Amino acid sequence: MSAPTESARASALQSGLLSRTNQTPEYRSAAPTAAPSAPWTEMPQHSMGDKPLVSVPQLVFPSPPSATDSECGHSPPSRRASLGSPPGHGTPCPAAHSPPDSCSQPLCPPLAEKHGCQAPPEMRYVAAGPQSVACGWWAFTPKCLQAFNTPRGFLLFLCAAAFLQGMTVNGLVSTVITSLERRYDLPSYQSGLIASSYDAAACLCLTFVSYFGGNGHKPRWLGWGVLVMGAGSLLFALPHFTAGAYEAEAAEGVGTCRANRSVACRDSASGLAGYRLVFMLGQFLHGVGATPLYTLGVTYLDENVKSSYSPVYIATFYTAAILGPAAGYLIGGALLNVYTEIGRRTELTTESPLWVGAWWVGFLGAGAAAFLIAIPILGYPRQLPGSQRYVVMRVSETHQLKDSGHKAASNPDFGKTIRDLPLSIWLLLKNPTFILLCLAGATEATLIAGMSTFGPKFLESQFSLSASEAATLFGYLVVPAGGGGTFLGGFLVNKFKLRGAGIIKLCLLCTLTSLLAVFVFFIHCPNVPMAGVTASYSGSVLPEGHLELTAACNAPCACRPERYSPVCGSNSLTYYSPCHAGCGGEAAPGAGGHKVYRDCSCVPQNFSSGFGHATAGKCTSTCQRKPLLLVFIFVVITFTFLSSIPALTATLRCVCDRQRSFALGIQWIVVRTLGAIPGPIAFGWVIDKACLLWQDQCGQRGSCFVYQNSAMSRYMLITGLVYKVLGFLFFATACVLYKPPSESPNSLAASLPSQSSASDNPMDLRDTPSALQLRSDV
């Protein structure tokens, strides 16, 4: 056959490939067959240089059967094409022509090497039918929307969904828990059940969503998830409209010596406590709807961007999720200053223990915003245009395990039925790098969940702050440290072009740095003296664990322990309540809007005869170590979050392409089960060991009022060191056990791109830089 004839054939076949841009290849493994014989022709070189085109398995695009296609010779070249793969060694190449029933001719037959050749297992790319990559809804795909049909456009809406999820679940819910307890007569353990319903729902749904959603239409799973999350927000606000109006009366003068009233101990509960089930169901829907975000959303981003850019996109996504709670605290705090019955006048003030703010407004807004965000996400295609060009580079970083199970996982039909679930789990369990990264993530999640829950309490105790001041200060630490650390982690991976083992080493370095910074908890601030708890009423130090709340100066007042309302005496000594300070007069407004109690018998007057005064609130701390503590806490938070995106990227790189969504789902289950759920429980149990003064609720122990700062710092240090050391060991072992891929031609065939990440243009492979540096002799 003449050279011009072969050149024309190649040109026609290339045109046929380009004309089928709307057909997504489907990959199937066939039995070894003899390579068809044809005259050898020279393969065109890479358009960007003198490097040859990467060798890929045979590519077959069959056309629908028709009456004119009874013989192969009647099929036009544009309808059928095949791309041959290089032969192996050990078997002579057959010289016979293709059998008559073969309906494909090789576009570029490979050259026989000097040692002979052996046909590898044939990998077929079978067209799965027309697949639209236009952005829109069904047939409605206007051209104006295609400007958003890019990774950046999808990232915008995905960040909006993550921001909304963080604002609602981690911001608004945490802010309004106290108001819900007051409004619906809920004890603390029931409000804890409301908060934990989110994680319980996520654990139940992660396996199902990540397994089936990973092989399905990811944007549709994400869009419907955001809709479910919006329905949960609306359901969470429903009790406000069905429980009736909130009515409460202000009790003036309660807590002073002359008007001390004991709290009535009632066993009967109102019917409002039953609304906890509605709140739990709303949180459950929040968890169900948010499940696809951190599994399918991450893998969809990773599939559709360049491998080196993926950490930056994922870091941006997680940064939005971290900034969401900050907005939730700000919005929720502002709404709590508005009375829950909007438009109705009340004598209550925001400082009253009976005050309930407009907790429900934020959830109505979140529900409406969720529906607006879900609409554009539902319009995105299964994969973005031109995504296949990034597949080879992703495959080149996959942790190599040579067994038949991973060959089965490369089958395009793998993972579409429940029968493949046990094998999928078994393949992940046999991957030591994946298991160790999951365990390392669980240790980090334990610290993050514990510190986010009890970090404000630690600052409140160490620096003698109010609850709102401590929460605000902790927010100032977490937002720049957490958000900046998360984005910086993704930026470093992209900046230094880190791969597999290099990413894990970065996680190891971050964990070591935060481990050293944890030693800051050796430092602590001394307790502010409190009469009857840490100091006597005369000012002398009391032995640890020895309480004397009643003294001669307040004995006639018969103060009840249920009324805890600390005041700061003019002698810089904190008292349990105005009654315990012996204050008999009514409170009067003082400087800064704080209430001032006069004629307090337990507060000595320094410069004149008579009794002193006390100001509402605890005395301020004069600790000189406050800046040092805050700086090192900032470092711990920064480097803890800095390792999150590299660890997530390493997880995506250590599993095969078709298992990445399912692997993230399993990892989230492990992280939540071993870290996020037990983390606050473990930290709470440890911190309670440092309690000096417990709340007395009609003879039953309630929450802790006063902690011993030295013991709290010591326990925080021990807990932080244990989990940081475990995380360091897990990352170090994962770095040692990680196996980079072997550079062989068969490695590409073992890790073919999935259908969801395939490009619509098969010729995109020409633009793919070969991570394996395979060379062809054609």
From TrEMBL:
<feature type="transmembrane region" description="Helical">
    <location>
        <begin position="474"/>
        <end position="494"/>
    </location>
</feature>
<feature type="region of interest" description="Disordered">
    <location>
        <begin position="744"/>
        <end position="778"/>
    </location>
</feature>
<feature type="transmembrane region" description="Helical">
    <location>
        <begin position="277"/>
        <end position="301"/>
    </location>
</feature>
<dbReference type="GO" id="GO:0016323">
    <property type="term" value="C:basolateral plasma membrane"/>
</dbReference>
<feature type="transmembrane region" description="Helical">
    <location>
        <begin position="506"/>
        <end position="524"/>
    </location>
</feature>
<keyword id="KW-1003">Cell membrane</keyword>
<feature type="transmembrane region" description="Helical">
    <location>
        <begin position="153"/>
        <end position="173"/>
    </location>
</feature>
<feature type="domain" description="Major facilitator superfamily (MFS) profile">
    <location>
        <begin position="154"/>
        <end position="739"/>
    </location>
</feature>
<dbReference type="Pfam" id="PF03137">
    <property type="entry name" value="OATP"/>
</dbReference>
<feature type="compositionally biased region" description="Low complexity">
    <location>
        <begin position="744"/>
        <end position="762"/>
    </location>
</feature>
<feature type="domain" description="Kazal-like">
    <location>
        <begin position="547"/>
        <end position="604"/>
    </location>
</feature>
<keyword id="KW-0472">Membrane</keyword>
<feature type="transmembrane region" description="Helical">
    <location>
        <begin position="359"/>
        <end position="380"/>
    </location>
</feature>
<keyword id="KW-1133">Transmembrane helix</keyword>
<feature type="transmembrane region" description="Helical">
    <location>
        <begin position="662"/>
        <end position="687"/>
    </location>
</feature>
<feature type="region of interest" description="Disordered">
    <location>
        <begin position="1"/>
        <end position="96"/>
    </location>
</feature>
<keyword id="KW-0406">Ion transport</keyword>
<feature type="transmembrane region" description="Helical">
    <location>
        <begin position="715"/>
        <end position="738"/>
    </location>
</feature>
<dbReference type="InterPro" id="IPR004156">
    <property type="entry name" value="OATP"/>
</dbReference>
<dbReference type="Pfam" id="PF07648">
    <property type="entry name" value="Kazal_2"/>
</dbReference>
<dbReference type="InterPro" id="IPR036259">
    <property type="entry name" value="MFS_trans_sf"/>
</dbReference>
<feature type="transmembrane region" description="Helical">
    <location>
        <begin position="628"/>
        <end position="650"/>
    </location>
</feature>
<feature type="compositionally biased region" description="Polar residues">
    <location>
        <begin position="12"/>
        <end position="26"/>
    </location>
</feature>
<dbReference type="GO" id="GO:0015347">
    <property type="term" value="F:sodium-independent organic anion transmembrane transporter activity"/>
</dbReference>
<protein>
    <recommendedName>
        <fullName>Solute carrier organic anion transporter family member</fullName>
    </recommendedName>
</protein>
<dbReference type="InterPro" id="IPR020846">
    <property type="entry name" value="MFS_dom"/>
</dbReference>
<dbReference type="GO" id="GO:0006811">
    <property type="term" value="P:monoatomic ion transport"/>
</dbReference>
<dbReference type="GO" id="GO:0015349">
    <property type="term" value="F:thyroid hormone transmembrane transporter activity"/>
</dbReference>
<feature type="transmembrane region" description="Helical">
    <location>
        <begin position="193"/>
        <end position="214"/>
    </location>
</feature>
<comment type="similarity">
    <text>Belongs to the organo anion transporter (TC 2.A.60) family.</text>
</comment>
<feature type="compositionally biased region" description="Low complexity">
    <location>
        <begin position="29"/>
        <end position="39"/>
    </location>
</feature>
<dbReference type="InterPro" id="IPR036058">
    <property type="entry name" value="Kazal_dom_sf"/>
</dbReference>
<dbReference type="InterPro" id="IPR002350">
    <property type="entry name" value="Kazal_dom"/>
</dbReference>
<feature type="transmembrane region" description="Helical">
    <location>
        <begin position="434"/>
        <end position="454"/>
    </location>
</feature>
<keyword id="KW-0813">Transport</keyword>
<feature type="transmembrane region" description="Helical">
    <location>
        <begin position="313"/>
        <end position="339"/>
    </location>
</feature>
<dbReference type="GO" id="GO:0043252">
    <property type="term" value="P:sodium-independent organic anion transport"/>
</dbReference>
<keyword id="KW-1015">Disulfide bond</keyword>
<feature type="transmembrane region" description="Helical">
    <location>
        <begin position="221"/>
        <end position="241"/>
    </location>
</feature>
<keyword id="KW-0812">Transmembrane</keyword>
